Every structure is written in structure tokens, then in C-alpha cells.
Amino acid sequence: MLRTLLLYLSERKTPQRLLTSLPAVRKLHERFVAGESIAEALAAVRRLKSDGFDFTLDHLGESVKDATAAEAATQAYLEILDRLKSEGLRPNISIKLTSLGLAFDEALARRNLAMLADRARQHEGFVRIDMESSAYTESTLRVFRDLDAPRDRVGVVIQAYLYRSEKDVKDLTAMGAWVRLTKGAYQEPPEIAFPKKVQVDANYVKLMTTLLATSGHHAIATHDPQMIAATQAYAREKGVGPDRFEFQMLYGVRRRLQRELLQQGYRVRIYVPYGRQWYPYFMRRLAERPANVLFLLRNLARA
Ligand code: FDA
């Protein structure tokens, strides 16, 4: 219920205005978002690198409504790719195709993505296409499949909660794609997505084994100790070394676990979001863990 409500609110403008004006909300969002400016994002990335983590930067923004906004988002990402390169950091960005125009003009999103892929190739960086709600699954995969870019420069995300993901993973691995496996963060109906956590988890493990059996460099993105243990056990059993895949986690989530995996010799990439449009991202993080909401409510009560 709470998850449904939070995900509903994440897409509404009026609660956004109200909630983002509350100091307690602004304070909690700092845990999940590295800052509003590129300078703050780079400072977070440098801290992570000095601790031994890899990173991927997400300039927050999604569902833009016109070409001007889509071009501004593309320019912002081009700037980040250049900036990372000039700072001696291997560029790695995570983008949402709706921020590049997918919701109203697929051809525009394709052109914008091609520009980013090209720049990433020049800088020996990587572009990860995040997966959004099921309204965009098919178009996101179509745009990814048609993109003329080396497979080690642009990858895509799969959500284990979708029934279709098993086939998508087979198709993607057959074409040599590099996949980030997630559970999925949106509200989806039972007609297309597993409704129970136990089913999502079982599918996650199944997809993880399919991915790690192939030669791509895949990302196992989760904070769930059971998913992590299943990955480690499978990798050990099949002789898949820690250099053949990576774990990924979100900025500010399960920091101790992030460090433990590093200490065990795994590669860990932290997803670092920054920017002014943090509200939908923040609400999805609240929806993932009821304790985050309790923490917020306690602070609101104190304010
Ligand atoms: P699960 O939700 O079962 O959580 C396991 C444990 O992790 C919880 O018990 C809790 O302790 C901790 N935890 C999880 N989320 C937390 C939070 N927000 N705050 C505090 N603790 C938390 N989704 C998507 O649909 N499209 C995408 O492109 C991406 N991209 C992406 C990148 C990366 C690097 C990660 C790690 C995740 C995503 N996601 C995503 C989000 C993903 O789909 C999923 O919603 C979250 O990762 C939570 O699922 P877990 O696998 O962590 O398991």
C-alpha cells in the first residue's frame, strides 16, 4: 500500500511542490543524492574513487516534454562526459531515454543517445541506459538494439520483476549486450510483473545465472544480501572471476555492505545521482524501504 502510494506521488506535481519545500525532506534527500551541481557530483565521485569504488553518474531528470529540454539534458550529459575525461576519470553515465525525448519523439531520443554514445566512445567511457516504467520497456530496448555503438560502450538495464525479462535477457546476451540486472523500481500490474517479492527474487537469481554464463561484463545491481550471496556462490561454482562482472549499488544505500564487497575483492560501482530534479528518484528510494518513510516522519514531527 505504502509503496503504491509513494510511487503514485512520485509522478505528481502538486505533492512534489509541497514535499520538496519541507526541510526534513530536503535533509533526507541528501542521503540519496550527491548534490545539485556538477561540482558536488564530482566531489562525491572523487571520494568514492579514493575509497576504491567505481561510479556511474546520473544527471537527474526524466520525462521531459519538449525538444528544448531533451537537448538541454543531452548537452548536460555531454558536458559531464567531457568534464570526467578532463579530470582523468573514466566517464561512466546512466541516462533515462525519456530525458532525451523518448516520451514524445523516439527519433530525437535516438539522435541524442547516438551523440552521447559517440562521445563516450571517444573518451573510452560508458553509457548505461536505465530502464523506466513498462510504458517504455519496448521502445528502450528497440532504441538500444538499433544503436550503432560498440557493445562495451553502451549497455542497458533489465528488471527482474517483468515476466518478459527472461526472453529479453536471452535476446540481449545473444547480441553481446552488457546488462545491468535490477529488481525494478516502478509500480507495475500483475499482468506483466511478478507481484510477490519471493517471485521477483527467484527470477533475479535465474537471470543472474543466465547473464554470468555469457561473456559480457554484466552488472549485478542490488542491495539484497541474498541476491549477492547467490551471485557469489554461482560465480565460485562456475569459475567466474570477480573481474568478469561487477556489483552495483545506489549512492547512500547500505554503505557498509558496499565496503564489505570491496574488501572481499569485488568490483563495486556506485550509482551517483545529482541535479535539481531529484523528487521522482527520491520517492522511488522511499518506496523501496518503509524505514526511510518512518525516519522522514519522525523528522517531520520534530520540525
Ligand atoms: P530489495 O528491495 O529487496 O532490498 C534489499 C535490501 O536493501 C532492503 O532490505 C534494504 O535493507 C536495502 N535497501 C534497498 N533499497 C533501499 C533504499 N532505497 N534505502 C535503504 N535501504 C534500501 N530500477 C529500475 O527500475 N531501473 C533502473 O534503471 C534501475 N537502476 C538501478 C541501478 C542501480 C545501481 C541499483 C542498485 C538499482 C537500480 N534500480 C533500478 C533500482 C532497483 O530496481 C531496486 O528498486 C532497488 O535496487 C531495490 O532493490 P534491491 O535489489 O536492493 O532489493
Measured as a percent range, the helix fraction is 40-55%
Order of helices and strands: HHHHEHEHEHEHEHEHEHEHH
Largest sheet: 8 strands, parallel
Enumerate the strands of the largest sheet in spatial order, edge to edge or round the barrel: 1-8-7-6-5-4-3-2
Radius of gyration: 18 Å
Strand-pairing-aware structural class? alpha/beta
CATH topology (level 3) name: TIM Barrel
Proportion of residues in extended strands: 5-15%
The residue-averaged pLDDT reads: 93
Please describe what this structure looks like.
The protein is of the alpha/beta class. The chain has a single domain, classed as TIM Barrel. Helix content is 52%, strand content 14%. The protein has 13 helices and eight strands. It has helices spanning 2-9, 13-20, 23-32, 38-51, 67-86, 106-122, 137-146, 165-174, 197-212, 225-238, 255-263, 279-288, 290-302; strands at residues 54-59, 92-95, 126-129, 154-159, 179-182, 218-221, 245-250, 268-274. Strands 1-8-7-6-5-4-3-2 form an eight-stranded parallel β-sheet. Helix 1 (2-9) packs antiparallel against helix 12 and helix 5 packs parallel to helix 6. The longest helix has 20 residues, at 67-86. It is globular, with a radius of gyration of 18 Å. The mean pLDDT is 93. Bound molecules: dihydroflavine-adenine dinucleotide. The site of dihydroflavine-adenine dinucleotide has 24 residues, from strand 4, strand 7 and helix 12.
